[in-house]
Amino acid sequence: MPQNDPNLLIPNVSENLTVVSNLSVPQHSIEINTSSELNSTYNLTNNSNDIRTQVVRANSLPAIIPVVNVYLNETLNQNVIAVNAGATVAIQWDGSGTVSNCSASGDWQGEKTYFGGFELTPELREARGYSYTLTCTNSAGSASDTVVVNVGRSSSQIGCQYNNPACAIGRACIEGVCIPSSNAPNFKVAVIVNSVDYPKLTRSDVSAVLRNASSRTRLATGFGIEETSIEFRQLGRNLTNDNIADMFSDYWRRDHRYVNGIILFYKNNYTLIHGGYMLTSRNLSNSNYCNDFFSSAPARHLGSSVIYGGVLDWDEPSQDPSDPQLSDRTIHNAVSMVHEFLHSFGNGYVTEDIDHWGLACLNRMQQNGFSYEPLPGGSIAYFNICPDVVDAFRNSYSPCVR
Q1: d(C-alpha 372, C-alpha 131), whole Å
Q2: d(Cα 175, Cα 158) in Å, to the nearest integer?
Q3: Domain 162-394: which CATH class?
Q4: Mind listing the pLDDT tens digit of every residue in the chain (402 residues)?
Q5: Residue 149's beta-bridge partner residues?
Q6: By C-alpha distance, which of 332, 384, 391 is closest to 358?
Q7: What is the CATH topology of the domain spanning 67-152?
Q8: Cα torsion for 207, 208, 209, 212, to the nearest 10°?
């Protein structure tokens, strides 16, 4: 810190300052870092108590975009939750950096204190996705963070379990009331085929799978599957899951085509080994998307804000070639398609295997007092998914307000 006068006492400041006045005193240059962008006045006093007032300008370092964090129910990194209608949710936020203002948008409004805060939402009664965005700004730009609360039906409305005598197999559940499947809406599905992987696959092949899947879901849940589109695309062989999630999202974000689910037939390392896996779109609540089939699975936090989906290998060999159903390519792909959709309504993941039909599933249902009606075909009739997960889908229809 160069100084020309050893008797000059420098105030305790922490700024990068350069003398810019023309006073008849020795010039001094003080090199200190600052984020200030304004001219400032400082009194520089020597040992003779002479006060030399000089106007100095901060040589500012570039401002840094602020950091904003918003989270739910006092849980860090909790930015999406699913709740039942009538719930109240705590929204908390904080940040760091220099900020000129912070404003809320989405389902809350107004200026917010930057150093942090806490608010309770009113009772959330409408079945849809609620988004809460906080944007903070300074001269370098702005930063935002968003949390989403997906609201479904009240738990008191859910009552269409298989052990309810009024809800026999083949009946759908609408707002807690069992109705004939002929009166139920369909689960709308789009299919994308990578023609690089399946050059001989035809539209009629795929339509046959969708029809088979529809008859099976109608029997097990009361809801059928409706074909909305079948597309053959030259996708190559290098798509990542992020690429695929964006492709699913663009059905709504870019093209404004409403579907409940999307299946991609595509060969990658995972489908070649395991046959398929669940993969949804991005969270689309900020794009005004609302899925009429609401996932209330606590471990997934999907709600109504995603398009459900899956990635399958059309050519996957049956894991049980002796089963006459699964050895049929149409049946095999129909069961696999619905299997991946249903994963979004369960709490497990493939590694935990708790969504799948098996001993863990049957033990869990027994512990919870959950009974189900056996169907011809056994586990295949339930898409190799635990019946309580299938029942969660059966109870999931919650039409959005549009």
Answers
A1: 37
A2: 7
A3: alpha beta
A4: 344 444 434 444 433 444 444 444 444 444 444 444 444 444 455 555 554 544 444 445 567 888 888 887 766 666 777 776 777 788 888 877 888 889 999 889 999 887 788 888 888 877 677 889 999 988 888 888 888 887 765 433 445 655 555 566 677 877 677 788 888 999 999 999 999 999 999 999 999 999 999 999 998 889 999 999 999 999 998 999 999 999 999 999 998 999 999 999 999 999 988 889 999 999 898 888 999 998 887 667 788 889 999 999 999 876 555 566 667 889 999 999 999 999 999 876 544 567 888 888 888 777 777 777 777 777 888 899 988 888 889 888 888 876
A5: 81, 130
A6: 384
A7: Immunoglobulin-like (2.60.40)
A8: 120
Spatial separation of the C-alpha atoms in residues 177 and 191, rounded to whole Å = 31
pTM above 0.90, yes or no: no
Q: Do domains 67-152 and 162-394 have the same CATH topology?
A: no
Q: How many residues does the chain have?
A: 402
Count of Cβ atoms closer than 10 Å to residue 376 Cβ: 7
Distance CA 302, CA 393 (A): 13
Domain ranges of the chain: 8-58, 67-152, 162-394
Residues 151 and 87: beta-carbon distance below 8 Å: yes
Give the pair of three-digit tokens for residue 59: 């040589």
Query: What whole-number distance in Å separates Cα of residue 57 and Cα of residue 39?
Result: 5
SS3 helix, strand, coil % of the chain, rounded to 5? 20, 30, 50
